[in-house]
Design brief:
By secondary structure, the protein is an alpha/beta fold. The chain folds into two domains: 204 residues, no CATH class; 185 residues, Serine Threonine Protein Phosphatase 5, Tetratricopeptide repeat (Alpha Horseshoe). Helices cover 54% and strands 7% of the residues. The chain is built from 20 helices and seven strands. It is globular. The protein starts with a helix and ends with a helix.
Length: 439
């Protein structure tokens, strides 16, 4: 169960990014829009809009916002456009768009918006043969933007990387960011380090553009947000536990309330601490509640803990029960993760027994490939785990190079979505492979 489902179903966290003001950078970008430049941004706030005249965006052709659906038409202007490819907080009298703020939402936009062919075609047309200036982008979430840049065929990409050491950006031959470096090997990048505001102000003065800043405002604070989404003490503890789990503070988990979600959070913490017997005991307590609102997640961790305790037959039974349950409640995400769990347990059990091993491993491989196919556009985590499983399978078969390629592909996805626990586990496996095969 993820943060959205457990703590903030309406994703009110986006309110933290709302603003009625703007700064000099937004003002500069607004002026560039008026001059015919187009801007593609991943930001949710409306600071660029705020910097423009009140009637600038009354013409809807000036602004395209990702809504979770494809464009209605491929015919859109190719200049003076503001494109908000991860959604936006609404303007006045505007409905909320879908915000690409969760891992599930991000999965829908991967591979350069492949599931939105009209939007993808438009974005590529917008960038083709143009000079693209990249500002304030670290390349850390490279599921949709980087693939777009790879396909765009621009005239050049000018990358302005923020570095406080230089007041004005200076061209650098060396790119320290490995993801930007990898992109530069596929498309030409002119890379600069330096501060942004002085540079933009210099160009504004040169072009006789008057920049301005909006009035200071009281923004929604984290404290305001917590008060809004947590109506009682139990909800605050659940939110606190989610934060503690994210920061790997497993021993600090609060568990003093008779609440199933908090019990499930404790199960996660005990699992990550390696206390599998305790996990099994706690899972059995929840298992007895037929109306449990965490039943699917409980079955998943129950099977996983039984696997680590080498009770493989029971682990297989529980993992199959998890698959059946996911189908009953039509939870596609749970189904993918349950299938991964089942395949992993079945793989280890087959290699231990050695009975019908080749046949069993072919079945396991088929499951991993099914998850890999079905996870596209739905779950980046399941995609990473399927690649991880296939990598393990190839390693067992002695295909070390192929195995490592798959494991590194899984690692890249996990690093992008920030799954620290899985990253640490996978890095240990890769290190062991390197030590064994390259002593």
């Amino acid at each position: 169960m993820k943060y959205k489902k457990k703590c903030d179903t309406d994703l009110l966290i986006a309110k933290l990014f709302e603003s009625n003001s703007y700064n000099l950078v937004h003002s500069f970008l607004g002026e560039m829009l008026k001059k015919g430049s187009s801007i593609i941004t991943t930001n949710f706030d409306n600071c660029i809009e705020n910097s423009c005249d009140d009637d600038f965006f009354t013409n809807t052709n000036k602004r395209i916002v990702y809504t979770g659906d494809d464009l209605n038409t491929s015919e859109n202007p190719l200049s003076g456009m503001l494109i908000k490819i991860h959604g936006s907080n609404p303007l006045v009298n505007e409905n909320n768009a879908e915000l690409v703020i969760t891992i599930k939402a991000l999965a829908k936009t991967e591979r350069a918006f492949i599931f939105f062919p009209k939007l993808k075609k438009y974005l590529l047309s917008l960038m083709k043969d143009k000079i693209i200036i990249v500002m304030g982008y670290s390349c850390s979430d490279d599921f949709d933007i980087v693939p777009l840049l790879e396909e765009a065929n621009p005239q050049d990409i000018v990358w302005l990387n923020y570095n406080n050491e230089y007041q004005f950006p200076k061209i650098k031959n060396r790119i320290d960011n490995t993801k930007i470096l990898r992109l530069s090997q596929k498309t030409h990048i002119t890379y600069f380090n330096g501060q942004l505001q002085p540079y933009l102000k210099y160009w504004a003065d040169k072009e006789k553009i008057s920049l301005k800043e909006g009035m200071p405002e009281k923004r929604v604070t984290v404290s305001d947000y917590i008060k809004r989404i947590c109506t009682n003490n139990v909800e605050r503890k659940i939110l606190c536990n989610e934060i503690l789990l994210s920061y790997e503070l497993y021993e600090e988990i609060l568990n003093d309330e008779p609440n199933e979600i908090m019990k499930m959070q404790r199960i996660k913490a005990e699992f990550r601490l390696g206390n599998y017997k305790e996990v099994i005991k706690l899972c059995r307590q929840i298992e007895n509640n037929k109306e449990s609102n965490v039943k699917g997640e409980n079955l998943y961790y129950f099977a996983s803990a039984l696997y680590y305790e080498k009770d493989y037959l029971e682990a297989l039974r529980i993992s199959q029960e998890c698959i059946t349950y996911s189908k009953q409640v039509k939870d596609n995400l749970l189904y993918l993760h349950a299938m991964i769990n089942y395949a992993s347990i079945r793989y280890v059990y087959a290699t231990i027994l050695k009975k019908g091993e080749k046949r069993e491993l072919r079945k396991v491989e088929k499951i991993y490939n099914e998850v890999l196919e079905k996870s596209v556009g739905l779950s980046l985590e399941a995609k990473a785990n399927a690649l991880w499983g296939l990598g393990d399978l190839e390693l067992y078969r002695g295909n070390v190079i192929h195995s490592k390629n798959m494991l590194y592909s899984a690692l890249e996805i996990l690093e992008n979505i920030g799954n620290r626990y899985a990253i640490d586990q996978l890095l240990k496996i890769i290190k062991n492979i390197d030590e064994f095969h390259n002593p």
